[in-house]
């Protein structure tokens, strides 16, 4: 069942411009007639002429909007100077209401163009169907299948122009939830390495659980890749790294490690390099983003360590890759654990908790309960120390000096961090990042 209807009047062909009021009125009549049981939200997208005293087509359309009482509270006209701006505004309205099934009614010649905008600004969470804007639509038009027309393929230049328009619009948006903040460790020497752990502030993501500096997009979340890319660009500007030389682990919740410059595995939770100017990153939204630095051999790494990866030894696998690939000495490697869910909040089923209890009983609290509390940080430290990392070369939540503590509990600090455990499936993601300075 269609939840929302988008009527695209943004750039009508010349032969339809003179009949814009009639087109809209006829289209709304059909929507009202076919939606008596479940009235969808209706958004009319039109152009706001730059420098015009009028609000563009909005005032011109008002006569056509009158009289649709059943749609009145669900009807909104969105005017903007670009298609990207108008469509992104409508996306915000859809997300506010949790709507995902959208019918787009538009001129035939705009269909392929609109699909490119939608591919960039939306994710697989949303379902779109398209219908041609008819001069005299019949009463069944909302129910019939998509009209078949000969497709007009867009050129690569057309697509590039759309991408540029979207990028320029997103760059113009203000940062949300305060300034962009980066947490840094005093253990990693800043004359050799550039590094940090992000918080959730200073980006443009507006959905509450993703707001505002979300740094991961997936088919299950409402934040598209272009928004994440803009958040990353802002982070790169603030931190001082090149976003075009940015490599994030491909999370598999296991212990595979990618060696930069060699064949890249399909999935991996650790990554290492000795190349200057290449930024490595590991995500975390309860799982631990772990950073590794060897100031002697000038090598670094990043790992994503959730409970599965912790048990599989992903941190030591990353250390071992630095030793074998770059000749690092175990005693020189520095390891910093970033913000992650703490033992105050994190629970696992009893069977999984047994594995942590085997590492050290202190890694589990209320062991006899059905869902004991788990300390994945302590387990990570223990496994690193057993592997040969010096205790003083590990920074985690055992640091009692609050000025130096960067391993906060993500679930306990909703104003600072994202948390899958706390926020559910549509959660945001922060990262830990590191690179070797030129």
UniProtKB/TrEMBL annotation:
Molecular-function annotations in GO: copper ion binding; hydrolase activity; S-methyl-5-thioadenosine phosphorylase activity
InterPro entries (UniProt xref): Cu_polyphenol_OxRdtase, Cu_polyphenol_OxRdtase_sf, Cytotoxic_necrot_fac-like_cat
Endoplasmic reticulum found in the keyword field: yes
Gene3D superfamilies the UniProt entry points to: CNF1/YfiH-like putative cysteine hydrolases
GO CC aspect terms: endoplasmic reticulum; nucleus; peroxisome
Catalytic activity: adenosine + phosphate = alpha-D-ribose 1-phosphate + adenine; S-methyl-5'-thioadenosine + phosphate = 5-(methylsulfanyl)-alpha-D-ribose 1-phosphate + adenine; adenosine + H2O + H(+) = inosine + NH4(+); inosine + phosphate = alpha-D-ribose 1-phosphate + hypoxanthine
Single GO biological process annotation from the record: innate immune response
UniProt keyword annotations, A-Z: Acetylation, Cytoplasm, Endoplasmic reticulum, Hydrolase, Immunity, Inflammatory response, Innate immunity, Metal-binding, Nucleus, Peroxisome, Phosphoprotein, Transferase, Zinc
Record's subcellular location: Cytoplasm; Endoplasmic reticulum; Nucleus; Peroxisome
Predominant cellular place of this UniProt entry's protein: cytoplasm
Record flagged with keyword Protein biosynthesis: no
Record-linked Pfam families: Cu-oxidase_4
Entry EC number(s): 2.4.2.1, 2.4.2.28, 3.5.4.4
Highest taxon of source: Eukaryota
Family: Belongs to the purine nucleoside phosphorylase YfiH/LACC1 family.
Subunit structure: Interacts with FASN. Interacts with SDHA. Interacts with ATF6, EIF2AK3 and ERN1.
Name listed for the protein in its UniProt record: Purine nucleoside phosphorylase LACC1
Organism field: Urocynchramus pylzowi
Gene name as annotated: Lacc1
